[in-house]
Structure formats: structure tokens, C-alpha cells
Amino acid sequence: MDAALADASRRAGTWLACRPGCTQCCHGAFAINALDAGRLQAGMQTLREEDPARAAEVVKRAAMWIEEYGAEFPGEVGTGVLGTSDQEQSRFEGFANEAPCPALNPATGLCDVYAWRPMTCRVFGPPVRMGDGDALGCCELCFVGASEEEIAACEMMMPHELEEHLVAEVGDAGETVVAFGLVLEP
């Protein structure tokens, strides 16, 4: 994914507004799968070994996030697993939409777990196929004034099948959100 992002970024040039410190996409809760949670947990283990103070700050922010939003979490707070009923999925649509990601360092505007970030974070910005693969979407701050052809020329290819295979390999324990992925043990 890093190579695909680098290629899409190169093709996009100045159309891609994403830069360190741009944090619009770092607000709001979104679902992550078991593979994403595993990436975050591996990253937190590395961070604990390499920079214990920063790891402690990330855990503190995640715990504060869970404390603030846990009562409204549309799932099981003890496990961090999102609910799958229609009602829970509907509640999730409006859940914590303005909340900053606990991985976002408020002092630097950077992600403290950038190398281990979830797939959604890895693909936000450049144009990617949405849903059935017909619609091409990108960050609203990017490609301002670009034609559909210019946007399409910068499409970032997604490894959907590989990701699905890897999720099946690690076991689909249900979806969660970043805050739980940062603090829950594998």
C-alpha cells in the first residue's frame, strides 16, 4: 500500500493536498478490521520498546477517548467490537464524528502510529474506487478544480482481495475503532 500511495501521490502532484499537519481526516470514528487492529497493536508494541513516553501518551489519549465516547459506543465496550445489528450500525453513522483520533498527536498534528495506521488512513486522500467500484472518491481538500479525467489519472489501486484474504487468515474478530485497537491486547 505504501508503494501504491507513493505512486498515486507522484501522479497527483499538487492536486493532492495531504501534508503533515493536515488533520481533517483524523477526526471521526470509523470501523477497522482485525488486520488493522493487529497492525495497531504491533505498532504499539514497537512504540513501547522504542519510545515508551510517546506510547504512554497514545494509550492515555485512547483511554480518554474510550472514557468520553464509550457510553455511546454502538457495540461491546469491554471487547471494543462494534455491533452488527441494523440499529447499532445506524447509531455508528453518527458516532463520535468530530472526535480526534487518539493516535493524532495534538502538539505536532502528526499520527503517532503512522507506520501502522489502518487501511482507511492509508488510502484517504488519493482517488480510490468506492462501494461497487464504480464511483471514484477522494478527500474533499484534494483535486479542487480537477476534471474527472485528471482525478481518474491519479487513481490509487486497492488490494481488496489481498486484504480480505489476510483478514480471513488472522480471523475476523469483528470490527472495532482505532481507540480500542490501540489499547486492547491481541
Write up what this structure looks like.
- Helix 2 (34-50) crosses helix 3.
- The strands form three sheets. A two-stranded antiparallel sheet has the order 1-2. A two-stranded antiparallel sheet has the order 3-4.
- The longest helix is centred in the N-terminal third of the chain and has 18 residues, at 52-69.
- It is globular.
- The protein has helices spanning 2-12, 34-50, 52-69, 86-93, 119-123, 148-152, 160-170, 178-183, and strands at residues 75-76, 81-82, 104-105, 110-111, 128-130, 135-137.
- It has one domain (28-183).
- It is mainly α.
Provide a compact summary of the structure:
This protein has 186 residues and is mostly helical.
Secondary-structure map:
Blueprint lengths: L1 H11 L21 H17 L1 H18 L5 E2 L4 E2 L3 H8 L10 E2 L4 E2 L7 H5 L4 E3 L4 E3 L10 H5 L7 H11 L7 H6 L3
Antiparallel strand pairs: 1-2, 3-4, 5-6
